[in-house]
Design brief:
The protein is α/β, with parallel strands linked by helices. It has a single domain (5-305), classed as Rossmann fold (3-Layer(aba) Sandwich), CATH 3.40.50. It contains 12 helices and 7 strands. The strands form 2 sheets. Strands 1-2-3-7-6 form a 5-stranded parallel sheet, sandwiched between helices. The chain has a two-stranded antiparallel ribbon with strand order 4-5. Strand 2, helix 6 and strand 3 form a beta-alpha-beta unit. The chain starts with a helix and ends in a 17-residue tail after the last helix.
Length: 320
Amino acid sequence: MELSKEQLLEAYDRMSKIRAFEDRLHKENTTGEIPGFIHLYAGEEAIAVGVCEHLGRADYIASTHRGHGHCIAKGCDIRGMMLEIYGRKEGLCHGKGGSMHIADLSVGMLGANGIVGGGPPITIGAALTAKYRGEGAVAVSFTGDGGSNHGFTLESLNMAVVLNLPMVFVFENNGMGEATGTDYAVGADSIAHRAGSFGMPAVTVDGTDFFAVYNAAGEAIDRARSGGGPSVIEATAFRFYGHFEGDPGLYRTPEQLQEVKDTKDPLKIFRENVAGSIEPSELDAIDEANTELVDSSVTEAKAAPVPDISDVDSDVYVSY
């Protein structure tokens, strides 16, 4: 699929935003000012952006506990996300959700999810809504390799086929469900191969290559929009940080981690692929601007007010 220079710069901008956001949070977490757990997405940027570049505001996504990248790729406000992670009143969820529960329904982001594998069942509902409205919207669930083993994920795969839903299941296989390797915990030789037993097409792509993800996602999303039903994309990648911030990461040696950063960095790979059509200085300028954006968001978040105790009962139940 051909992309214009403007589209390429937009894609890089989103990947750069994710990297700047996550790298800054990695540093900020050591201050002790951020409540709750943080799971960083650095190293997997090409997956979220490669998929979400095909989506509009009317399309839906559901995420995982490692959700910052999906939020940014779908268009969530950086400032609002940072305020939420710091537990501030003006955050996207009024400071009540934190890192693992960021959501913004106005852009079709149904939420990050602290329940492993919790996204697919939610997205089934969104896809069913899209089908009955008949407006061409699709739903995408992002799930990790660990979540791919959960029963409600498998039930969702089956239901999506039975109901012929406009949905794409994206399995982000970073090789480790927390600290357990997929070669041990996933019985099949690949997550994608499981899709055949449910009656849907599937592919495995290099999740560090934006263009590989973009092309696979384009085909799957077009199929869903045109009534062709659900499909699976397994995208392999490598997370740069631990399972959570504070994870000692003893399951990888420093040498292994450095090799991943040197050879499997989605931003570096993107730069190599667009060499000759986009000047490095243009990409450098994007990185600098995003670093400044994230820095200012952190400064604002630290100074912002926390929710009032009177807000504890709000946003709990829906009023019909």
